[in-house]
Amino acid sequence: MNNGTSLLKCSDVYVRFGGVMALSDVSMDVQEGTIAALIGPNGAGKTTLLNVITGMVAQTEGSIFFRLDDLSEAQPHIRSQKGMVRTFQNLEVFSHMTVLENVMTGAHNLYKYSVLDSIFKTPRYFSQEKKCREAAMEKLRFVGLEDDWNKNAVDLPYGKQRLLELARAICGDPVLLLLDEPAAGLNPKETSSLGRVIAAVRDELKITIVLVEHDMELVMSISDDITVLNFGQVIARGTPGEIQKNPEVIKAYLGSDD
Amino acid sequence: MEGKKGIFSFLIFVVITFGFPWMLTNDYYLSILILSGITAIGVVGLNLLLGYAGQISIGHAAFFGISAYTSAILTTNYGLSVGTGIFSGIALSSVVAVIIGIPALKLKALSLAMATLGFGLIVYIFLNETITLTGGPSGFVGIPRFNILGYDFYSDLAYYYLVAIILTFVIIISLNIINSRAGRALKAIHSSENAAMVMGINVARFKLFVFVLSAVFAATAGGLYAHYLSFVAPSSFDFHFSIKLIVMAVLGGMSSVWGGVIGALFLTSMPEFLRIYEELETILYGLILILCMMFMPQGIVGGIGKLSGFVMGMFSRGGGRNE
Q1: What's the ipTM?
Q2: Cross-chain CB nearest to A172 (options B185, B197, B200)
Q3: How close A213 comes to chain B (CA, Å)?
Q4: In CATH, which of 1.10.3470, 3.30.200, 1.10.10, 2.40.240 is domain B3-315?
Q5: Which of A128, B174, B250, B312 is the most exposed place for a label (fewest CB within 10 A)?
């Protein structure tokens, strides 16, 4: 499995919030074309690591390499333009827009034209908008939301808003997609269909995925590679089979007797 | 101007604005309409900033003032043409907007409100204190009437049409920006700056863009104001005027370009009509504002939308719902 090329490399990342060490000496390698899961108990630092990777939290030490570029100091929108997109644990759909507009916003840097093109409604405006709308509709079909395209984003039920965030994230044709607890708040049926969509993102769209998730059934069924964090440190990494048997991991999740 | 509803709204605006005021025989009404139109240009711009991008500015009167005074001084004291004067006023306002905007837009919500408030007060004090340049609190007189290519807009009707044409352009520009990639970016920033960044939107750049654009519209309005009244005083561009602009945007409807136009017309003309009630004027003014916000929390445009939806529902009852 690990014969692909390394897409994302976090090396020796430390994050200190005041006196709290949120991450210490965390390194992670994500291979192209895989789903790399990041698991661990609450407060282990999973979301912090995602924030560091996407540039929303600055690391105290360490570096982030993405496709061999050193993006350690890059701003979030620059990292996005390089092909790194994420979703959020607490839904962040754009509430003042329709479902379709939300997804079109995901392709912000894919179908470009200037403000002057939009003011004068040039042919470029129309052709780029048309391409953008078609791409967004295609992504909505991909996640199964095509019938809701004209609704206000906030009117969608919770589970569909999760899918909308996913559609918006893949509309920019990212290379790497980081999902922060995509199954949180979903029922088992919704979770298993979400699992199929996530696997399809990897297999059909060829997008590499970093998955932070608590639902172990989902993680074990679709991940290629798992990294386990506890108290800000990597305590294990391996295939789902290896992780399930790892005594350190079992101890972290269930607690030990001493 | 997306969709049938957008084109319909635009046509109604054009017909009412251009088709009817020549019938007005009363110059007083016409001057209220002119001032409403000038203010609307500024409020539509402020609404892009406030209603779409979700960034508050309590100092927008300053951009009106900077432009009005720049053009007044250049045309009256230095004999430049009115066109050059207004253009210089707009240019200076946008430069100031860039200088103020870069640090201020890093602030959020209330901090941004305080920063822009401070900026507005500084400009107001500057206009009051630099007496040799601006004439100080007693104002600046003798500003030439707007003229371009040898045509003087001396009649109020001509000036009205000038303002109407410029307002129409401002509306078209605003609508076209909103229905575009930039408009989506602004709305995204309003909902969630984090998510906007993740979509690759350069949040700082788009905030600055809309701040400067709204300053340009405010400055355009300021220039038209100075060359209409031939007189400007700092008190026209004080804190209260900044607040009034925000109230117009909120009352008209924040997430609508038309909201800015209707809010400006409503709040510019209402005090004039309430004047006959003398001492009750302020109380009635406040009461009307409260009632509007109670029954139309989405603003007047939202209220009209709801009402027309209700009326359409009455007619199509039993014929199935169509959305």
Answers
A1: 0.91
A2: B200
A3: 19
A4: 1.10.3470
A5: B312
